Amino acid sequence: MGPAGGRGGSRRGGPPGTTAVLVGVQLLLVLDTTVITSATPVMSRQLHTGVGRVSLAQGVYALAFGGLLLLGGWCADRFGALRALRWALGAFALSGGAVTMVGAVGPVIALRALQGACAALAAPATLALLIDLPPRRARRALGWFAAVGAIGLALGVGLGTPLIAAAGWRAGFTGPAVIALALLIGTVPLGRGRTGGGRRSAGADGRPPVLLSAAVTVLLAAAEAALLARSWWTPLAALAAASPLLLAVLRADAGRTRPVIPPSMTAATTARAGLVLMTAFGGWQAAEVLLVAVRLDSLRAAHPWLAGLPFWLQGAAALLCAPAVQRLCESGRSLGPIMTLSPCAAGLGFIVIGATRSTGPAAACAATVVFGVAAVSASTAATLTTASAADAPPGRIGAVMTSARQLGTSVGTCIVGALLGAPLGSPGRACALAAGAVVIVLGLAASPRDRRA
User: What is the C-alpha separation between 4 and 388, in angstroms, rounded?
Assistant: First the structure.
């Protein structure tokens, strides 16, 4: 079957603006994460606390988001994706607005955890609504959904530090809260069209995926907690200890009559490669943000807008390439080359970052433009191939896709964060070169060998 085109053709699309609202939710979730993450040093100064305490706020967000995604997908299938999305947006807006009433980091951590849970409900519900659109419209909408994921990260990193430095740390919460409220209002017309959002999905499992969600949470917790350790090797050891548990639970799940991960997402070579690419994409994006930030650290303190320029250029490159990438991905013959070449291009970006002892703005801009093209290509190809799984509830498909990316993000952050503290002469440079080699090898190894979707 073609990408994102095998789920039936009897459905009507929602009202005008359906795609814009749903893609807007994805932009909100990506911007919310990256704006806060990139502005951690500024927030620590304004809250008069250590960077570690502020980082903990983002850590609990990542833990709640990644650990609850599979349960969020179950809720979308069980109670209706549109209803779940409205719950999530409403609670997200309320928790963001509540930040205006607190002035200490403790309540911020609690509210950030709540927002992570809301995001875990919103992400699979949004994908379920997109997948439930008619095939041709779904392909286009999923293409923009994937592109926004790549563009939003770059823009969020470029916007975060100067925004919070100018408007205060609360702006990083109240801004997304206002957007969430606007999107919640925008979902009102969606209930008038037959987008499948108010109905329980056919094939929805009555039992929530508690065991697999717990295993994912353990791995994410190990990655997040280990980053707070003083020894550079502790995060790597924590990942090595937690990974076998997740693998064992995945094997047990595959043997169930109705596994959490739909067999159609792993049966064909191209679909498996799409999941692998989605995980790798999350990992290299996290590594890129960390490495570019480290290499431009001295510039960020003096000129935050100039330090954000590479990420603005990355977002622009991804936006300009998105339509062409979508057209190529609609042809099944182009998917294989895109899935192979996009990690190779990302690897080249890492090599550019690590090629010299000090990375200046020009080299960072060149690298991030390459990253932008690689990101939109990988995200679009991986999303379209994995979303085409047949005979599976759309909420579960969305949850598995997003979980794969989030696992890659957390593991990539953990590994790169650990290696940056290693006793090397130039850890940032060595880490960039190593990341480039690993991503290229992974892209070549995970290349699909057939054309089955």
Answer: 4
82 and 191 Cβ atoms separated by less than 8 Å? yes
209 neighbors 58 (Cβ within 8 angstroms): no
Q: How far apart are CA 14 and CA 234, in angstroms?
A: 49
Distances in whole angstroms, Cα of residue 293 to Cα of each of 57, 154, 364: 19, 12, 10
Q: What count of residues does the chain have?
A: 453
Domain span at 104:
18-445
Q: Is 10 part of any domain?
A: no
Residue from 133, 201, 266 nearest 396 by CA: 201
Q: How many domains, in total, are found in the chain?
A: 1
Q: Are 163 and 308 in contact (CB under 8 A)?
A: no
DSSP secondary structure letter of residue 422? S
Residue 11 is assigned to a structural domain of this protein: no
DSSP annotation string for 115-137: HHHHHHHHHHHHHHHHHTS-HHH
The answer as to whether 339 is a domain residue is: yes
Please, what's the b/e burial string for 140-156 (b: 16 or more CB within 10 A of its CB; e: otherwise)? bbbbbbbbbbbbbbbbb
Structure tokens belonging to residue 403: 């979980």
Residue 317, class by beta-carbon neighbours within 10 Å (0-12 exposed, 13-18 middle, 19+ buried)? buried
Note the pLDDT tens digit of each residue in 415-442: 888 888 787 778 888 888 999 999 998 8
- CATH at residue 93: 1.20.1250.20
The answer to the question of residue 453 being in a domain is no
Query: In whole angstroms, how far apart are CA 379 and each of 125, 137, 181, 187, 293?
Result: 18, 18, 27, 25, 22
Which residue carries 């990655």 as its tokens?
Answer: 223
Q: For 144-187, how does the pLDDT look when each residue is reduced to its tens digit (9 = 90+)? A: 999 998 888 777 777 776 777 777 778 888 889 999 999 999 99
CA distances from 24 to 89, 184, 187, 282, 444 (A): 12, 11, 11, 20, 33
Query: Could you please report the per-residue DSSP string of 329-358?
Result: HTSHHHHHHHHHHHHHHHHHHHHHHHSSSS
Could you give the CA distance from residue 152 to residue 26 in angstroms, rounded to a whole number? 8
pLDDT of residue 195: 46
Confidence of residue 449 (pLDDT cuts 50, 70, 90): low
